[in-house]
């Protein structure tokens, strides 16, 4: 197992390196040092502000001054990290240096006059110099968004950020009062609802620390620990390597916050192991894609999106994380049950026990990772210190780590800082640009109009509105990151859902989940395509396998919107009832999808078994549908219908067995 693990780890590093070359510059040493310095200054600024230390001037600086400083630094990092095109993959050209100098001058000016900007309301009436600087900043933020988020983000942000300047010339449905381009510029850059609106504020004040913690966890050996733990616990079970993928990718995804990076981290280890015990290439790629995508909405970290959601709803992050527990459990439980059914159907065993790491040794080597996680959750849930908890957890992790075999050398620490800088730059570039969308909608007030129009188009039919919302979320998710798509939908679509009487938290969770489905749904299943490159299989075949495996997540958002008890928003009895029936229902749906019901056996092969599988699937869906809620179905009615479908399916299976 050790030689195999070393080979697969090498393959993983090669895959990560090749993926990085496609997006990031391969920086020479001097620019790596510049990035390390900028990252360190950003972290110092964040710690100073979040902990109220005041170690620069003896008092805590104005929030807007802090935002100008940290945004300026991280925007500069965007132009170091991401090339404008393929002509500068390993050097920083003169025009990027010029842009960085411009950012430094402009944001220093804004930071210096931060108090005047607030007191004199420059967002509505700025001096001429402030107007020109705002116009330049607007252009720089657009380019930063293009480099960090790609052309889809750029196009959408351009359309919505310039929308206020032409709003009166558009069709009546989306028309509004327009404002001159210079007024739009100062609103975007000098106000608190656009560039420095919810996305950047949440990033600078909450998400920052969790990103630092996630990267530190990976570089101190957290990734290998969780993978080894998964192999030790599940590697020798039926279909063990695929179950390992669910466990390890789920935990890694919660740390990394990105489906694609998660696939490239764990895939080169899990996919060959799955192939070894008999899984097909496309099935192995589909498992890894689904597990990596699901990890992004698994508590406790959940990437940046959960923090933005908490800010939109004006609730604590812990409330969002608790609400996400059951949907993520249902998703991973559905994956687990499908894999187990597939392995039973195909007689796939696990890996030999003697080749697997020993559970005792795994805990001995990495017990402190679990201890740090427990400390983090305790600070979040019990102490409710969301902003400072990840910094304390990171400090504890790095301190303990230095007394273990995973201790960081100077070179490894520099790699940690460099990776941290890349991630901070990427998110800052995207979120700064996405903030302009919020500004464009806020200054015109069109968001409320769009919400009312959507309700009107749906004819006051909430189910139609949900289907429209699901399709919109999916389409936006194709071209944007999960966080970017969610922010846009939270402004435009969620008000329409809440105006229809749906629970606000359930509505926000609905659009977030559907925005993520594009990662496993062809034709643009990016996570599946990344897994396909590791498995050396057709991307479309991997995408279809991932779509089938992740099928339960297409239904779960509708379930918790119909009855928020699946978000633990009901009474204790309602929550237990909804969760227990949902778990059983998911198990039956998984059996129908794979054609094998544990305890019963095959549900029929080829075309003859389709009707049996449909009946079992309908039984599962009926059982998983929460009682009460929007439709008001009684639990007795749902259970009765589920039993009727199930008995009919079993009778059909018995007939097929006798006929064969």
Summarize the structure.
The protein has 660 residues and is an all-alpha fold.
Q: Would you mind describing this structure in some detail?
A:
The chain is globular. The chain has 660 residues and is an all-alpha fold. The protein has helices at 2-23, 29-50, 63-81, 94-112, 114-119, 128-149, 151-166, 181-190, 198-219, 222-234, 240-256, 259-276, 281-295, 305-313, 317-323, 325-346, 359-381, 389-401, 410-444, 446-457, 462-479, 482-492, 494-499, 504-516, 526-535, 539-549, 552-562, 572-594, 610-624, 635-659, and strands at 596-597, 601-602. Mean pLDDT is 85; it is low at 1-21. The longest helix is centred in the middle third of the chain and has 35 residues, at 410-444. Strands 1-2 form a two-stranded antiparallel ribbon. Among the domains are: 2-195, no CATH class; 578-660. It is built from 30 helices and two strands.
What would the keywords be for this entry?
660 residues; mainly alpha; two-stranded antiparallel ribbon; 73% helix; globular; disordered N terminus
Q: Helices, strands, pairings?
A:
Blueprint: H1 2-23, H2 29-50, H3 63-81, H4 94-112, H5 114-119, H6 128-149, H7 151-166, H8 181-190, H9 198-219, H10 222-234, H11 240-256, H12 259-276, H13 281-295, H14 305-313, H15 317-323, H16 325-346, H17 359-381, H18 389-401, H19 410-444, H20 446-457, H21 462-479, H22 482-492, H23 494-499, H24 504-516, H25 526-535, H26 539-549, H27 552-562, H28 572-594, E1 596-597, E2 601-602, H29 610-624, H30 635-659
Antiparallel strand pairs: 1-2
Helix pairs in contact: 1-12, 2-3, 2-9, 2-19, 3-4, 3-19, 4-6, 6-7, 6-8, 6-19, 7-19, 9-11, 9-14, 9-18, 9-19, 10-11, 10-17, 11-12, 11-13, 11-16, 12-13, 12-25, 13-16, 13-25, 13-26, 14-15, 14-22, 16-27, 16-28, 17-18, 19-22, 21-22, 21-24, 22-24, 24-27, 25-26, 28-29, 29-30
């Amino acid at each position: 197992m050790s030689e195999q693990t070393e080979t697969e780890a090498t393959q993983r590093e090669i895959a990560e390196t090749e993926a990085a070359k496609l997006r990031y510059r391969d920086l020479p040493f001097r620019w790596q040092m510049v990035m390390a310095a900028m990252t360190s200054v950003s972290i110092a600024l964040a710690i100073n502000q979040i902990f109220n230390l005041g170690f620069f001037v003896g008092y805590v600086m104005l929030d807007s001054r802090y935002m100008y400083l940290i945004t300026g630094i991280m925007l500069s990092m965007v132009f170091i990290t991401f090339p404008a095109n393929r002509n500068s993959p390993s050097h920083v050209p003169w025009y990027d240096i010029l842009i960085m100098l411009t950012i430094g001058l402009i944001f220093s000016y804004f930071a210096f006059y931060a108090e005047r900007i607030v007191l004199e309301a420059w967002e509505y009436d700025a001096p001429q110099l402030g107007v020109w600087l705002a116009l330049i900043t607007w252009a720089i933020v657009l380019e930063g968004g293009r480099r960090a988020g790609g052309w889809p983000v750029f196009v959408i942000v351009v359309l919505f950020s310039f929308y206020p300047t032409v709003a009166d010339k558009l069709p009546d449905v989306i028309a509004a009062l327009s404002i001159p381009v210079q007024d739009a510029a100062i609103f975007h850059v000098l106000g608190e609802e656009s560039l420095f609106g919810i996305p950047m504020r949440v990033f600078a004040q909450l998400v920052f620390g969790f990103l630092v913690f996630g990267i530190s966890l990976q570089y101190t050996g957290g990734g290998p620990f969780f993978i080894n733990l998964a192999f030790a616990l599940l590697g020798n079970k039926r279909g063990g390597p695929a179950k390992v993928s669910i466990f390890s990718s789920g935990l890694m995804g919660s740390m990394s916050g990105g489906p694609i990076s998660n696939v490239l981290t764990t895939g080169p280890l899990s996919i060959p192991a799955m192939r070894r015990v008999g899984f097909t290439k496309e099935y192995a790629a589909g498992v890894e894609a689904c597990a990596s995508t699901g990890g992004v909405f698994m508590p406790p970290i959940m990437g940046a999106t959960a923090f933005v959601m908490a800010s939109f709803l004006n609730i604590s992050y812990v409330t969002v994380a608790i609400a996400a527990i059951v949907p993520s459990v249902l998703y991973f439980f559905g994956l687990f049950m499908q894999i187990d059914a597939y392995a039973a159907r195909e007689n796939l065993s696990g890996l030999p026990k003697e080749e697997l790491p020993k559970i005792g040794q795994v805990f001995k080597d990495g017990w402190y990772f679990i201890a740090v996680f427990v400390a983090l959750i305790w600070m979040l849930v019990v102490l409710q210190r969301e902003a400072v908890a990840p910094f304390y957890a990171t400090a504890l992790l790095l301190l303990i780590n230095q007394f273990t075999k995973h201790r960081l050398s100077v070179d490894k620490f520099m790699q940690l800082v460099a990776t941290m800088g890349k991630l901070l730059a990427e998110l800052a570039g995207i979120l700064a640009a996405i903030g302009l969308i919020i500004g464009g909608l806020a200054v015109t007030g069109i968001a409320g109009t769009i919400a009312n129009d959507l309700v009107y188009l749906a004819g006051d039919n909430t189910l139609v509105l949900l289907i429209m919302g699901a399709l919109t979320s999916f389409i936006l998710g194709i071209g944007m990151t999960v966080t970017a798509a969610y922010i846009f939908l939270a402004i435009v679509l969620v008000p329409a859902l809440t105006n229809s009487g749906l629970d606000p938290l359930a509505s926000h969770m609905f659009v977030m989940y559907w925005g993520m489905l594009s990662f496993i749904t062809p034709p643009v299943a990016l996570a599946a395509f990344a897994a396909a490159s590791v498995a050396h299989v057709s991307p479309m075949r991997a995408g279809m396998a991932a779509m089938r495996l992740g099928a339960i997540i297409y239904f779960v958002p509708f379930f918790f919107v119909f009855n928020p008890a699946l978000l633990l928003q009901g009474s204790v009895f309602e929550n237990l009832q909804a969760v227990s029936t949902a778990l059983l229902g998911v198990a039956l749906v998984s059996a129908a999808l794979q054609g094998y019901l544990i305890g019963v056996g095959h549900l029929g092969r080829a075309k003859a078994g389709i009707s049996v599988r449909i009946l079992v699937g309908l039984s599962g869906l009926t059982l998983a549908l929460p009682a009460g809620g929007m439709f008001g179905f009684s639990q007795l009615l749902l259970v009765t219908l589920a039993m009727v479908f199930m008995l009919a399916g079993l009778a059909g299976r018995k007939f097929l067995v006798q006929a064969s």
